[in-house]
Design brief:
It contains 8 helices and 7 strands. With 375 residues, the chain is an alpha+beta fold.
């Protein structure tokens, strides 16, 4: 293009000076054009390079993004597995805790059952040993009373004969002895002593009967038993803990005998009645009621103690829970009692409010579905 401009300039009739100036302008223009072309080509090269760099960067970013997504998916998968493992561990922990609680309950019930079995054997042995001599005493009271009545009659006949025959002088020493000893008072006192012996023997017989009923060794056999007798024998054993301060108001219904493990139910009655007695600090009353409802026997034991709050009532059957002072209660009595009633296919409920006393209601079926105790 520059050569064309030079040729055109030579064809024109221009002075050398003008031509020189024109050449300079053309060269300057060519130089600017060359620079522009260089910059253009450079720009194209830079643009291609930048495009390549951008393409590579975008590709790398896409690859990085893909790797991040894969890593994210792997993390999510691992988190899911971790959550799954965590849930399994929590389930296993709950199972282990439940198993531990069941083992503790079973151990406590086993210990208590062994204690009750040992107590049953001991009381049965004591009752047997006491029963023989007390039967001897009881059997001899009536003959002794008859003999004493004969002696008293004989003495009075002697006195009457002495008076009728006027033999006072001959029996002066006897009369002096009678006056000194107050023979009539002695005879009255002997009768009173004999009456006391009779009452004591009767009371001892009741205690022995209570011991024998309470200590029945029935861990493996269902037997028919009258629950009124079980409650009564328990009251006999607890008599010394409540006499002179707690009135026992009984309302025994005409209930039939039920299939049960009598010794275990006596253990329940002992726990409930002992707690009722201990709940009443001074004077008070315990109401005992038994009756039938449909195919069940109901036993209600209610005291006039201080009652319980809702919080205490909700925990009352929990193992090892006790409101007694340290060393005065294990917290197992009601828990074991609840278990015994459940194993009899029955239920135990508690109704109580602060200041209103507490009532425990036991519901037991007349017939048992199973014959194997688990305590």
């Amino acid at each position: 293009m520059l050569e064309q401009f030079i040729k055109i300039a030579e064809d024109l009739s221009l002075s050398e000076e003008v031509k020189e100036l024109l050449y300079k302008e053309i060269k300057a223009i060519k130089k600017n054009i060359d620079i522009a072309e260089f910059k253009y080509h450079r720009t194209l090269i830079d643009k291609a390079a930048i495009s390549n760099v951008l393409t590579a960067s975008i590709k790398e970013i896409e690859e990085q993004k893909k790797m991040v997504e894969e890593a994210k998916n792997e993390i999510a998968k691992n988190m899911f597995e971790l959550d799954k493992q965590k849930q399994l561990i929590e389930i296993k922990n709950r199972v282990l805790n439940d198993t531990m609680d069941n083992l503790k309950d079973a151990q406590s019930q086993l210990i208590q059952s062994e204690k009750m079995a040992s107590l049953g054997q001991l009381t049965a042995g004591v009752a047997h040993e006491i029963n023989n001599p007390i039967n001897f005493v009881s059997a001899n009271i009536k003959p002794l009373k008859d003999d004493l009545a004969d002696l008293i009659k004989c003495i009075r006949l002697y006195k009457q004969t002495v008076k009728e025959k006027g033999l006072e002088n001959e029996f002066e020493e006897v009369e002096k002895f009678n006056a000194q000893t107050d023979i009539e008072y002695v005879l009255t006192e002997v009768n009173d002593l004999l009456k006391g012996i009779e009452e004591g023997a009767s009371r001892t017989s009741e205690i022995v009967k209570g011991l024998r009923n309470f200590s029945r060794i029935d861990q493996h056999d269902v037997k028919k038993a009258n629950l009124n007798e079980g409650v009564e024998s328990t009251l006999t054993l607890l008599h010394s803990t409540y006499r002179d301060r707690i009135e026992i108001i009984k309302e025994y219904g005409n209930i039939p005998e039920i299939e049960c493990f009598p010794g275990q139910l006596n253990q329940v009655f002992m726990n409930l009645l002992s707690n009722a007695v201990q709940a009443i600090k001074g004077e008070g009353k315990i109401f005992i009621k038994t009756f039938t409802r449909e195919n069940n026997v109901i036993i209600s034991i209610k005291d006039t103690g201080p009652g319980m709050t809702e919080e205490i009532k909700s925990k009352i059957f929990d193992p090892f829970f006790t409101t007694k002072e340290v060393g005065k209660g294990t917290g197992l009595g009601l828990s074991i009692s609840y278990g015994i009633i459940e194993k009899h296919n029955g239920k135990m409920e508690v109704f109580s409010s602060p200041g209103e006393g507490a009532e425990f209601i036991i519901t037991l079926p007349l017939l048992q579905k199973t014959t194997t105790p688990n305590t």
